[in-house]
Amino acid sequence: MPIQVAPSILAADFANLQSEVELLNKSQADYIHVDIMDGIFVPNISFGIPVTEAIYRHAQKPLDVHLMITNPDLYLEAFRNAGASVISVHIEACSHLNRSIQSIKSLGAKAGVTLNPHTSVTLLEDSIESLDVVCLMSVNPGFGGQKFIENTYSKITRLKELILAKGAKTLIEVDGGVNLENAPRLKEVGADILVAGSFVFNSVDPIQTIAELKAI
Fold first, then answer.
1. In the annotation, is 64 catalytic?
2. Which positions bind a divalent metal cation (predicted)?
């Protein structure tokens, strides 16, 4: 299966957000990754529902919305209405994970769960079959441009083993520090979707960079 690429709009030029979205429309990107931060669950604040809705108005790619917020259940419907095709919640923020997953699916979106670097994939044993995607954070969430955590490779391997053992069709997404150096190995050990922010938007030619990621 060809690798999928989800450039993170968090690394875009916010003063020219429409043109940045239109640039991604012209690229081979599969999704536009939208990082939502509340300054409580993670030590940063990004943007919320109105900006997500504005991105959606110009996007020709599905929005992959990553909720790095407390009490995500309160906002699932609002983000779905704002244009999210995929909604991922953090396992660390959900007291009743199965309920959150079912709520996302009931809204007609694909359901994802995100794990912080320290969180074990074994916690997904009872829910993996109901998930469309699991996003593994390969940096500590909250800021772009961080160094990739090497333990991510073995974590992907363990998650892939769980998916296969359960007969699930869940995709593995990797978010943080992704570049052309580590992308081939990430694909080799089982990653399906690569989130890349700074690596794409700080490059001389973002469209070409996305194409190179797609071609690994």
1. no
2. 33, 35, 66, 175
